[in-house]
Amino acid sequence: MPEYHVGQDYSGTLKSDLFFEFVVPEDSDLAHLVYPKQEGWEYISKRSPTELELAEEDTKAWLEVGILKQKLNRNKNCNTDPSHVTEVYFTELVLELFNSDEDEVILSEFNLTRPWFEMPGDEQATLVTKAFADRVRQSGLRGATFLPAKLNNSEQPANRKIPPLFAFQFQGKKCLRPFKVQGAENACPFCGRKPLICQECDFSYSTCPQCDQSAWTPLNKHGGPKDKSLIISPPEQREILVMEGKRWDGSDFVFANGIEFVNPGIISKRALDWLLSIHAAPFCARSLKFCTDGMSDQQRQQLEEIQKPIHS
Ligand SMILES: [Zn+2]
Ligand SMILES: [Zn+2]
């Protein structure tokens, strides 16, 4: 019997440093602890001044917002099952300001702002200024869109000017390799509903929609031979994502898990270099694995292209 049933499949020709997982940290000061180097987070772009430096000064604060209202569009582009959600995007976003009236709000052109959560599991957005959005649009990088966000700031102090904000969305088609089920059927271990993890689009049911049981569990929570649930691999076995080159649409900004808490987006090497060159902050990035098997000539040509730097 294998050690686990559900895990990442690292077979095939895998290349590193072509694409990167991209995250805007909740707390820029603590980014290096939450996204440590030993877990592959090689690039950490920090804001200056830091929260700590600002706390000493006491008058200025970084922009802080929460999501007040949102509308979402759910793409369903799976050929195996048209009910599978493949990508999720905001189509409307209303923000509320969390800064106090006393704060002098600071935000420079190339700052990335992540709204605070009211609840864990809430959607997350990446907010940028118009200047940032314009620079990305002019850069030649592919796959980004910018949705104007409304700020509910009717009672703001008269001297406060919050610039227009845009949700920075990665609209390259999702092309992550789905987790693989081994030593068991790709089906709910309780009622047999299949598949558990769609092998085309990566849509997965950790809780079975038919019998409502949770399909997998980590080894330390598994109840042994009498427990029917499947065992999921340890996090270190599956945390580096695999992107399927043969399903890649040529974008520099690629959807991963979008607005959900983990792995929101993927950026190409040239997009990473470009974001670093314009001093976009804060963000963290780590290399993922890119599988080159089965790619078309056009995809290979685009892959060559995204390895050449673009000028800011
Ligand atoms: Zn079931
Ligand atoms: Zn599917």
Average pLDDT rating: 90
Task: Please give the share of residues in helix.
Answer: 10-25%
User: What is the oligomer described by this structure?
Assistant: single chain
Strand content: 25-35%
Write out the strand line-up for the largest beta sheet, numbering strands in chain order: 4-18-3-17-16
Number of separate domains = 1
If you compute it from the alpha carbons, what radius of gyration comes out, rounded to the nearest whole angstrom?
A: 21 Å
- Straight-line N-to-C gap: 53 Å
User: Are there runs of 5+ residues with pLDDT below 50, and where?
Assistant: none
Described by the principal axes of the CA atoms, the overall outline is globular
Q: What's the total helix number?
A: 6
Quantity of strands, as a count: 19
Reported for the largest beta sheet, the result is: 5 strands, antiparallel
Bound molecules: zinc ion
Structural class: alpha+beta
Helix-strand topology string = EEEHEHEEEEEHEEEEEHEEEHEEH
Report on the architecture of this protein.
This protein has 312 residues and is α+β, with helices and mostly antiparallel strands. The protein has one domain (6-177, 237-305). 14% of the residues lie in helices and 28% in strands. It is built from 6 helices and 19 strands. The strands form 6 sheets. Strands 4-18-3-17-16 form a 5-stranded antiparallel sheet. The chain has a 5-stranded mixed sheet with strand order 6-7-10-11-9. It is globular and about 65 Å long. The N and C termini lie far apart (53 Å). The relative contact order is 0.24. The model has no long low-confidence stretch (mean pLDDT 90). The site of one zinc ion has 8 residues, from loops.
